[in-house]
Automatic annotation (TrEMBL):
Membrane topology, from the record: Multi-pass membrane protein
Stated role: Inorganic ion transporter that transports phosphate or copper ions across the mitochondrial inner membrane into the matrix compartment. Mediates proton-coupled symport of phosphate ions necessary for mitochondrial oxidative phosphorylation of ADP to ATP. Transports copper ions probably in the form of anionic copper(I) complexes to maintain mitochondrial matrix copper pool and to supply copper for cytochrome C oxidase complex assembly. May also play a role in regulation of the mitochondrial permeability transition pore (mPTP).
Family annotation (InterPro entries): MCP_dom_sf, MCP_transmembrane, SLC25A3/Pic2/Mir1-like
Record's catalysed reaction(s): phosphate(in) + H(+)(in) = phosphate(out) + H(+)(out)
Any Gene Ontology biological process: mitochondrial phosphate ion transmembrane transport
Entry keyword set: Membrane, Mitochondrion, Mitochondrion inner membrane, Repeat, Transmembrane, Transmembrane helix, Transport
Name this polypeptide is given: Solute carrier family 25 member 3
GO molecular function, one term: phosphate transmembrane transporter activity
Subcellular location field: Mitochondrion inner membrane
């Protein structure tokens, strides 16, 4: 007995939920490290090393400053995980059905790679808006402190494109 039928809506929902948990929670847990890494990339003179970056951030913003960008990180990577894990299974079944059972087995590695790449394409589109907001919050002092402040400001200044400028680098990554 299985908890759900392979390829059913419940199956896809459970896969997507697994993606939310595995991507959203883990990326949110390392927000302080990501914040310091991003700041080191943007201002290497000020943030000379990981330890120095933590020290400078705590001195300037307090311990709470290490959590800047947690909301877009959680939302963005949860959406990416949902799409990555859920769509991977959708594309794996779709491509497998297109190839037929025997060819799907014979070409399973290529099938899995194609399904993974297809899922990642859509997952990165889901991630890009929140990643853009996160980077602005974390690396541009005074721009915005929260997601609620960043999103309307970004949209007002640059329109929808502000949220998708980073999608091509995500695809290349």
């Amino acid at each position: 007995e299985y908890s759900c039928e392979y390829g059913s809506l419940k199956f896809y929902a459970l896969c997507g939920f697994g993606g939310v948990l595995s991507c959203g929670l883990t990326h949110t847990a390392v927000v302080p490290l990501d914040l310091v890494k991003c700041r080191m990339q943007v201002d290497p003179q000020k943030y000379k090393s990981i330890f120095n970056g933590f020290s400078v951030t705590i001195k300037e913003d307090g311990v709470r400053g290490l959590a800047k960008g947690w909301a877009p990180t959680f939302i963005g990577y949860s959406m990416q995980g949902l799409c990555k894990f859920g769509f991977y299974e959708v594309f794996k079944i779709l491509y497998g059905n297109m190839l037929g059972e025997e060819n799907a087995y014979l070409w399973r590695t290529s099938l899995y790679l194609a399904a993974s790449a297809s899922a990642e394409f859509f997952a990165d589109i889901a991630l890009a808006p929140m990643e853009a907001a996160k980077v602005r919050i974390q690396t541009q002092p005074g721009y915005a402190n929260t997601l609620r402040q960043a999103v309307p400001k970004m949209f007002g200044e640059e329109g929808i494109w502000a949220f998708y400028k980073g999608v091509a680098p995500l695809w290349m990554r």
